Amino acid sequence: MAADLWTALFIAILAAFTGYEVISRVPVLLHTPLMSGSNFIHGIVLVGGIVALGLARDPVEQAVGFVAVVMGALNVTGGYVVTERILAMFDRSKGRPKGGAP
Amino acid sequence: MTAFAVGDAIDAVYVVAVLVFILGLQAMSAPSTARRGIVYAGVAMLLAVIATFFSPHLTNFALIAVGVIVGGLGGWYWARVVKMTAMPQMVAVFNGMGAGAAAAIAAVELLGHLPDRATAGLSLAGGVIGSISIAASLVAFSKLQGWLPSRPIVLPARQVVNSAVLVVGVGVGLYAVVAVSTAWLLPFFVLLLLYGLLLALPIGGADMPVVISLTNALTGVAVGLDGFALVNGPLGDAGYAMVIAGVLVGSAGSLLTVLMAKAMNRSISNVFFGAFGSAPETGGPVAGQLKEIGASDVAALLAYANQVIIAPGYGMAVAQAQQKVKELADLLEAKGVPVKFAIHPVAGRMPGHMNVLLAEVGVSYDKLFDRDEINAEFANTDVVLVIGANDVVNPAAHRQGSALFGMPILDVEGAKNVIVNKRGQGKGFAGIENELFYRDNCHLLYGDAQKAIGDVVSELKKTS
Prior knowledge:
The structure holds two protein chains of two kinds. By secondary structure, chain A is mainly alpha-helical. Helix content of chain A is 70%, strand content 0%. Mean pLDDT of chain A is 85; it is low at 93-102. By secondary structure, chain B is of the alpha/beta class. Chain B folds into two domains: 3-273, no CATH class; 295-462, Rossmann fold, CATH 3.40.50.1220. Chain B contains 16 helices and six strands. In chain B, strands 3-2-1-4-5-6 form a six-stranded parallel beta sheet. In chain B, strand 2, helix 14 and strand 3 (368-370) form a beta-alpha-beta unit. The termini of chain B are far apart. Chains A and B meet through helix 1, helix 2, helix 3 and helix 4 of A and helix 1, helix 2, helix 3, helix 4 and helix 8 of B.
């Protein structure tokens, strides 16, 4: 196995414990926003999509890579807006935020 | 600038991005800092995406730009216009998009690097998990959106069929890698997508929060595996960022899933393999009869109560009645009747759903009580007003043999009077008759929550 993979494995182990520690004492009322927030964070997949499409060499790879980029971008912006809207309701200072559809 | 220096700059951005992701996630786990958390994470994500554009060796810029713009604007618009009540399924659908992207990246890697066993094997694993996650997420979305019936769809011999689809699918994928044959990749993805569908279809709508949370964690893992596959490539540092962010979500998401399942007293394996709610009701006929009550009687009962506890559920969310509910609570408090809210952990369609809606209209946190905090109080309360909640107040949960048995509920039946506002005589999400409605101390206030509670409010105003 290449050295890079071992490095990645070390990193992965630390990241796994970090994820566990960071949210181990979270109140129930934040479960939904946190799920939504972590949903946004795996939107980093967009970066992988850009790399995959950027290195694609034939039309099939390009087509599949394009799908990856579109879906990744949907994950990023959709995940952000949903989380932001949920959390905006917790913010009292701004009064009543717009909740429903326009 | 040389390519080397550019690469270093990009790496620095990735390092900052993953650091901010971790800090953002931590901020999001406390109410006072939660909003800051998502904004920080958003800025970090934006930087990471922009930095990636400057990666050396990148081609297909036009396609990338079009993809980012189409997906980005689409996601932004869709998430903006959707109603707050539809937020759970929006999390499901955007999670599904991430999973689909992970599966598609795995496909590109498999197409391009099939002879490289390590990369191909890791991509295969990412493809398996990504495909299952997108299919299951889209089923969750369709069930919550009402495109699919929310009750469990159970096919005959499903355990055997499902396992066979999974085993054959993974086998086909492994064969593609061993035989270095791209022709087998399409059937591989099709079978794994099918497995995801088969896995989620038999799960009832009431369990969807657990499904969404688990698929969210799965998507994180799939992204992490894709990251592993990418670190060997020419732009490997993007892979490290994906490993960290993906595994971070995978572990945090798994923990959340466990916490959530615990709040519903369900084990993960029971959610996925139990076909909850599909068994016919075994409780026998329910004794007693349904008694209707009018808004003016409700107003009188409330006005002279020693204390009122409001137990909201999905019906309040659907009717967007939270504003009226707040108005009612304020009126009662002005009359000197203390009002508390009993929030079941899974009332609505997601943990925290009710908290969010009530916070939206300015109900203060110290009025919201957890199941454990308030269950003992029902017995000393004159009136409990249940608004559009059903399964979470069904005493059948205390009776062995009921499909709900063991689920922790709000013991509202202990109160002197229980008033249940519901739209009609339908059953709850679990599809089970609610014995509470037939109790002697229970009366039903029929009607859409917004209108029904509005009527009670105007009756109360008349008397004051």
